[in-house]
Amino acid sequence: GLPDRVDIYEVGPRDGLQAEPVLVDPATKIEFIRRLAGCGLRTIEATSFVSPKRVPQLADADQVLTALDLAEPGLRYPVLVPNERGLDRAVAAGARDVAVFVSATERFAAENLGTTRAGAIELAAPVVRRALADGLGVRGYVSMCFGDPWEGSVEPGAVADVVARLAELGVQRFSLGDTIGVGTAGQVAAVLAAVDRAGVGRDRIALHFHDTYGQALANVVAGLAEGITEFDASAGGLGGCPFAKSATGNLATEDLVWLLHGLGYRTGVDLPALAQVSRWLGERMGRAPVSRVVAALTGP
Ligand code: HMG
Ligand code: MG
Predict the structure, then answer these.
(1) How far is the CA of 21 from the centre of ligand 1 (A)?
(2) Could you report the per-residue pLDDT of 53-66, keeping only the tens digit for each?
């Protein structure tokens, strides 16, 4: 059977916008996040405190996070943090949940963080230690879990090793990313089985799919069948990854919600309202959302 309950982890304002070449002003970002919360999304990754030279789109992270009501009950606004400098900035802006990110492959660690796989874990270690000491929630992203644009296939054991190292540091929850969207449903069980051997329960694992080859929803269904209860998605299918060749959009939140409602889950998300939010942002950015569900619900 399928799990009783499923959580949606919205990444549009962070993973979505980080890859968008058209600069969105901070007021629009803040309004976007408020509207997402208004549609019933409960966890919204708001921004990232990375080097503004690497991700100019999110150079306004401090301004955006400070403008949100971070104490609102039932809502969480995690932020991405690459190093201690980023943690200092995030804490100063009031963050209560942070996410570190490492790669399952050597090449992407170099492209994304300018280091090795081991180096990425060393970079994350003091961030995790200090964040936990401050009582913050800590998520660990593992990218390139289902394939790498430079290295090709990825051994599930490599994913499990990285998860095990992060778990040793105290990382509470994990998001396994198909960063370039090449994964297919048959791989999901194999990756999860390897991660089981790392001793991290499936209740601590989220899956993060990209829809490059149109497989994201099939992969979600495979994840549900394996007992996974948290999925990342991006409103309107915003984003990709600026540091990975051939990475197109994240799974659209609207597509995920349509699937989940069809399976009988209550997500608390007002789907038509969410589609309108994506449409509104798309108009501001000068491009239509890629989600089929958004197109179906809002018309041409
Ligand atoms: P670096 O460029 O290798 O070297 O940065 P650096 O440490 O010398 O920093 C360069 C400049 O940035 C310096 O400024 C630093 O002070 C500054 P300068 O001296 O030249 O004026 N700097 C910072 N400024 C503000 N906040 C900071 C910060 N850190 C350094 N936190 C670093 C190393 C790791 C910081 C850099 O490579 C970086 O920011 N990388 C992150 C890139 C990124 O955001 N990638 C996308 C992540 S998303 C992902 O991985 C996948 C995921 O979405 C899931 C999926 O889709 O599968 C999670
Ligand atoms: Mg992504």
Answers:
(1) 17
(2) 999 999 999 999 99
Structure tokens at 293: 């569900």
Tell me the two tokens of residue 292. Answer: 């089929």
Q: What is the DSSP string of the chain?
A: ---S--EEEE-IIIIIHHT-SSPPPHHHHHHHHHHHHHTT--EE--EE-S-TTT-GGGTTHHHHHHHS-TT-TT-B--EE--SHHHHHHHHHTT-SEEEEEEESSHHHHHHHHSS-HHHHHHHHHHHHHHHHHTT-EEEEEEE-SS-BTTTBS--HHHHHHHHHHHHHHT--EEEEE-TTS---HHHHHHHHHHHHHTT--GGGEEEE-B-TTS-HHHHHHHHHHTT--EEEEBGGG----TTSTT--PBPBHHHHHHHHHHTT------HHHHHHHHHHHHHHHTS----HHHHHHH--
pLDDT score recorded for residue 300: 73
CA-wise closest residue to 162 among 203, 103, 83, 100: 103
Using a 6 Å CB cutoff, which residues line ligand 1? Answer: 15, 18, 48-55, 82-83, 85-86, 89, 101, 112-114, 141, 143, 177, 179, 208, 241, 243
What pLDDT, on the 0 to 100 scale, is given for residue 156? 97
Nearest CA to ligand 1 atom 14: 51
Question: Which residue stretches of the chain have pLDDT < 70?
Answer: 240-247
For residue 244, the ligand closest to its alpha carbon is: 1
What is the predicted ipTM?
0.96
